[in-house]
Amino acid sequence: MNSIYHFFKDLVNNKELFKKVEKLENFPFDDSILSCKNVGIFPDLAISLNTDNSIFTGGELIELKDSISYSVSSFNSTIPTKRKNISKIITSENSNIFKQMKASGDDVYSLPDRDVFYLVRGKSKSNVKVCLVYGSFFETISVENLISDFFKQVIEDRLKDSDYQFSDEVTSFFNKLFSEQEAFSKVRNVEKSSVKLRFRIMTEVKAEGNILNSKKYPEIIDNTLNFLLPIYSKKDEDEIMKKFNLVFSLKEQEEFNIIKIKHHFNGYFLVFQINI
After folding, report:
1. Dist CA 224 CA 13 (whole Å)
2. Contacts of 24 (CB under 8 A, 6+ apart)
3. Are 175 and 156 in contact (CB under 8 A)?
4. Helix, strand, or coil (residue 216)
5. What secondary structure letter does DSSP report for 58?
6. Does residue 112 have a cis peptide bond before it, meaning omega lies within 30 degrees of 0?
7. pTM listed for this prediction
8. I need a surface site. Which of 36, 230, 261, 262 has the fewest CB within 10 A?
């Protein structure tokens, strides 16, 4: 059986290594539940799909975020999100990601929309915090709105000392035009230029989104491994607990501190916390 819950259990079984492994990418992840592993491109890891179980679909995508401090390292080129469509990740059936997933036995496009998780590790002196967190912890507004509002601020800054004003209709058009990263992240070939140009996004986490920040999230304490999932209703919480109970035995569950924390922008998260 494959799922993010089973992935977390494997982390729990090897949790002491989070203090020893120099680079997070060198952690001995369980390859038997993974459909692909990459270095330097998204996703760093992907869980294999399940074809015969309605409780665990598998297929989750994971990005590794490693830091030598209690800050979340910046996101280069990819904006953090809670879900991604697999067709936006795999642009060709000759791609390494597709080949790996296919070789693992996945029917790659059978689950188009994939949940995204981030495995975050931060260090402070001899202490460490590790969090496996669902992408909605970072995506508190849609990526489209984030990008379009960014460009809206750029336009407003450029027009600040100008007598020219865009109409609301024109402003709305520009916001929509620049709401997708693909619109400006492609390499553009400009005539008579000896260089090509493309823009890359770097996303930095604010204090309110830094799960390692002790002032913002004091519940995430030193030398713990944490699994964070959003809960918007009692039904969400019940579903999470059902899956957790299927993966961890009653004896194993006794080692966990199960708490709720409130995100500063995005509601409550259920946290499964265990000492490292």
Report:
1. 13
2. 64, 65, 66, 119, 121
3. no
4. coil
5. B
6. no
7. 0.87
8. 262
